[in-house]
Amino acid sequence: MDCSETRRQLLCAPEQAWRDLEDHLLKCRQCAAFASSLLRLEAQLDDATAVPVPDGLSARVLLHATLT
Asked: pLDDT, tens digit, for every residue of 47-62?
């Protein structure tokens, strides 16, 4: 597998591709750095989208749905 295919797979599914491409990533420092950077970005995006749900939100949604 070459670097181009490795990076394409990493961009499509970073978490899954990491396991599938381990051999190439162990041999290629540039792709390993790319994968590491991509996984950090994925983690940052997960953190950024983790919005706490206010207490009682589901009850308010259900109440609103029954009143309209």
From this structure: 999 989 899 999 999 9
